[in-house]
Specification:
The chain is α+β, with helices and mostly antiparallel strands. Helix content is 52%, strand content 13%.
Length: 423
Amino acid sequence: MHLILDKLPWLIAMVVLLTCSAFFSASEAALFYLRPRERRALKSGNRSQRACAVMLADSERLLSAILFWNLVVNITYFAIISLASLDLQRHPAVGKTEAVAFSIGALMLIILFSEMLPKSLAVASAPMLVRLVGLPLAAAVRAVDCLIPLMRMVNLLSRRLIWPRFQPEPYLEISDLERAIQLSTNDAQLIDQEQVVLQNIVSLTEMRVDESMRPRMQFLSFRPPVSLDDLEGRLTPSGYLLVTEPDRDEVVGAIHLRNLTDVRHEHLEHLAEPVVFVPWFTTVATALQQMQSYDREVAAVVNELGETIGILTFEDILDTVFTFSSTRSSRLLKRQSILQVESDVWHVTGMTSLRRLGRHFSVKLPESKSVTVAGITQEVLERLPVPGDQYQWGPFSLRVIDVPERGPLTVELTCNTSKEMNS
């Protein structure tokens, strides 16, 4: 008992440091585990939550401060353990074995109660925990603001001097992913399906949004105020109620009708969530990343003038990834994009992508600014097409056979390479 009372200041200091380390570890896990929607909700929460929202706006500053305080606390803790262990070894009633056991026990305490347990609890109850840690954590971050520029400079110099040629890890190749699947399963059918999915995922980094979007002619939008009667008791083609600006036809909000539970008869625009805006030339992968970052399900595709030319929904991307042979024609028009009508003649919809056309006929296509059959038709003709127009492009001979007022055109295509092979 005399020994415990003699070392009581050391034990109290260790408990305080363990608590501080647990606080910073739990705060880091809770704040950075929050989903985008939960982060946005912090801005309208209590004072502690608003403080967390401000800190998360500069995540590098927040993380640097947390790591700094955790490092200071842990170094102090280990220094106290070392001093206490040396002091115990000199005590006549304690042996060297007991001193080593004390050090190991103290190490296990900080691992379990300052790292593993706090982080596990923080991840399980992150939204609730941020209500408590915001104000004390904000004070701790402000206390080291003067050191943040120095830490950033040290980090920059270390990368420039110690690892000047450091390169980010290259992206996995599709062959690497296929190899991993082959090693993990012996089911040939499952391997083929997963390879198709992986190839579709990789293709998102090359596919432009104007290749996968729903064109303006293929979706319905409504100007506010929007009432339930405007839907006429039916789902929209896209599955979303798209809300435009009051005085323009530019899409600014969307409501997922299939997930709608609180149905009101008037002013449905108040239930709409904002959409993300992406330029027509960006890739589907980039659009998906923005949709996930802002927790949105719809992206409005705009041209150089900021006009909405189409929309891209989360379901459209999933269909592109998980459908064996996904095309916009089958998804939007319920018809095949490339339909063979004779031995060397095909009917092709205008929204068929040139990428799919070249893959279907196994030919290399000329370079073009357009990405669809409709686009290349206007590019070659240099005007709006009319039925009967004929033109030659690459290995194809094309004739326009249908130009509806609403919907994509249809062309009759003959592949010259197929004729040569048959002859």
